[in-house]
Specification:
The structure holds two protein chains of two kinds.
Chain A: H1 3-27, E1 39-41
Chain B: E1 6-8, H1 15-26, H2 29-41, H3 48-75, H4 81-88, H5 101-129, H6 138-149, H7 161-209, H8 223-231, H9 241-255, H10 261-266, H11 276-293, H12 298-316, H13 319-331, H14 337-371, H15 375-396, H16 401-439, H17 449-478, H18 486-515
Helix pairs in contact in B: 1-7, 1-11, 1-14, 2-9, 2-11, 2-12, 2-13, 3-9, 3-11, 3-16, 3-17, 5-7, 5-14, 5-15, 5-16, 5-18, 6-13, 7-14, 7-15, 8-12, 12-13, 13-14, 14-15, 16-17, 16-18
Chain lengths: 42, 527
């Protein structure tokens, strides 16, 4: 693999892994109240 | 308000549950079979530039829109296109009919996807029991696969029975999950399935990346060169419009946006639940699985074992060839190959089942919301229809009926449905109100640039995609120019009759629901 290939592969992986980390670390901190079942009229 | 009955809508049990369910919907066979072959034959590493651009301009915004409209619809007891668009258009009579495409596409895809899912379960069984150990050459493995799916009768398989048995097992699993509902079925399945899928993917990626030089007699055939086949940028490919189309198509279909699956799932969110971060999390999960895991297994293993030239030919011969013919042959040549083949097909099976339940859900939600059916009634009706149409496909697959349904339901219809969806969000609801709805309860803020993107760029992207596909493929497909066999033509017309019947039935249900007061007049100014 040439240098361009390594750069593209590793940078793509780094961006996606960082995004995963960012999203999950934020999402897991937020909670849903399980008793909050909403009712609605049709 | 035309009715006074109070209805409790089921909800997701946890944020991570809905994120994994939507990620599971997006992660499918295409992440492991289609993405690496598309990247390898469309410029290698250079493919990632239009691919990432399409992800930002098309994938992420459309996912936000669909999550937003789904949650909005759920507040008004509608989780599918007709009901959601009716409210967005303040009760204009034409609006509800534009939502039909977003139920038609996932429902028709279900008919053949569940059958293909059965192949992955069967091959994981054969991996453990040595079912294809005698098929040691590519032509033998190809015969094994063709015999199994019923495309030909040969020394491996004389009839469809094994494929039907595995279809029935997968069918029962899918509809058992659907009977259990959102929290008890889909959420439980994805909370267990997605971590297993990611562990299987990491295990296989590590195995492939540590293959070294599998055959010392061919020192050029090694993992580094194989990764180069996948990632070395061919910058001249960026001037080819086909590469841009391939990258855009891959993002679009990989994320399953615009098809109505996310809308149905999001309709079970609560009013104040975040959609922005949840959507982004599900999207990045899909992209991680596709690029990091999917891009490190199939085509890389093929190039390491058979060399770049042969891998090019494998990539060009299609996803199934890579998944069901090349990969089993590769696993037969490595230590503990049976185990790794099992892990590979288990991975595909989990990817399949977490997607198929999301494909079934829009029809279930539609029947429950618009016909007031119970969960069990809706699941039973969809199950019967699914069984009958799949039975038709099982016995006519050799005539191209599955490909025909795939073209209309998975190529044409999702682009049409997504165009309609973004039109309703950006121009009927309006960007300002749309973003207010999207950002309600949001855990992160959407950058302002996406207002411009959703108003101008995403719709233009979709229309261009639609026009190019129609102009290049439409006429030859409609007139069956490439189908010479008259029997095949008849069966394909039979498949088209089924597609028409599905569309008409969905339309009839909308009319019936309208008469029953499900789409009431909405006071001007209110949505």
């Amino acid at each position: 693999m040439n240098l361009g290939g390594w750069i593209l592969m590793l940078s793509s992986w780094a961006v996606l892994i960082w995004l995963m980390y960012y999203c999950y670390s934020k999402a897991l901190r937020l909670k849903i109240d399980p008793d909050d079942v909403h009712k609605q009229s049709l | 308000m035309t009715q006074s009955n109070t209805k409790v809508r089921e909800n997701w049990g946890s944020r991570i549950g809905v994120i994994l369910a939507v990620a599971g919907s997006a992660v499918g066979l295409g992440n492991f079979l289609r993405f690496p072959t598309q990247a390898a034959v469309n410029g290698g590493g250079a493919f990632m530039i239009p691919y990432l651009l399409a992800m930002i301009l098309l994938g992420i915004p459309l996912a936000w829109v669909e999550w937003t409209l789904g949650r909005y619809g759920g507040q008004h007891s509608h989780g599918t296109g007709p009901g959601v668009y009716h409210r967005l258009a303040k009760g204009r009579p034409w609006a509800k009919y534009l939502g039909i495409a977003a139920i038609f596409a996932p429902t028709v895809i279900t008919f053949y996807y569940v059958y293909i899912e059965g192949w992955t379960l069967a091959f994981s069984y054969y991996s453990l029991t040595g079912g294809f150990k005698d098929a040691i050459a590519a032509n033998e493995m190809s015969s094994f696969f063709s015999g199994f799916i019923g495309a030909e009768s040969n020394s491996y398989f004389h009839n469809h029975t094994p494929a039907i048995v595995f279809f029935l097992i997968v069918f029962v699993i899918n509809y058992f999950v659907m009977y259990k509902g959102i929290q008890g079925g889909i959420e439980k399945l994805t909370r267990i399935g997605m971590p297993i899928l990611i562990v299987c993917g990491i295990l296989l990626a590590i195995r492939v990346l540590t293959l070294g030089t599998p055959d010392p007699a061919f020192p050029d055939r090694n993992v580094t060169n194989a990764l180069g086949f996948m990632w070395n940028p061919n910058w001249s490919a960026l001037s080819d419009v086909k590469v841009w189309l391939a990258a855009t198509g891959q993002i679009f279909f990989s994320l399953s946006v615009g098809m109505g699956c996310i809308m149905a799932y999001a309709s079970y969110l609560r009013k104040d639940d975040d959609v922005v971060l949840s959507s982004l999390t599900a999207t990045t999960t899909n992209q991680f699985v596709e690029v990091v895991l999917g891009g490190s297994i199939g085509i890389v293993a093929a190039a390491a074992f058979y060399g770049v030239a042969q891998a090019q030919s494998i990539a060009s011969s299609g996803s199934f060839s890579l998944g069901f013919i090349t990969m089993p042959l590769i696993f037969e040549q490595i230590p503990f190959g049976g185990f790794f083949a099992f892990v590979w097909f288990l991975l595909l099976f989990i990817a399949g089942v977490t997607s198929s339940v999301s494909l079934i859900q829009p029809a279930i939600t539609f029947l429950k919301d618009e016909l007031d059916l119970s969960q069990n009634q809706a699941v039973t009706i969809m199950g019967i229809v699914n069984f009958l149409v799949t039975a038709f496909l099982v016995f006519t697959i050799q005539w191209g009926t599955l490909d025909e349904m795939d073209f209309w339901a998975a190529t044409v219809c999702p682009v049409v449905a997504a165009t309609i969806m973004v039109f309703f969000f950006s121009y009927v609801l309006g960007i300002k109100q749309g973003f207010a709805e999207m950002e309600h309860g949001a855990a992160i803020q959407v950058p302002r640039i996406f207002r411009f993107v959703l108003k101008y760029i995403t719709p233009t992207y979709l229309v261009v995609l639609l026009v190019i596909w129609i102009s290049t493929e439409w006429w030859s497909v409609v007139t069956l120019e490439k189908v010479a066999d008259s029997a095949a033509r008849n069966w394909i017309w039979g498949a088209r009759a089924i597609l028409a019947a599905v569309a008409v039935t969905i339309g009839w249900i909308v009319v019936h629901a309208n008469r029953a007061g499900k789409f009431p007049q909405i006071t001007e100014g209110k949505r």
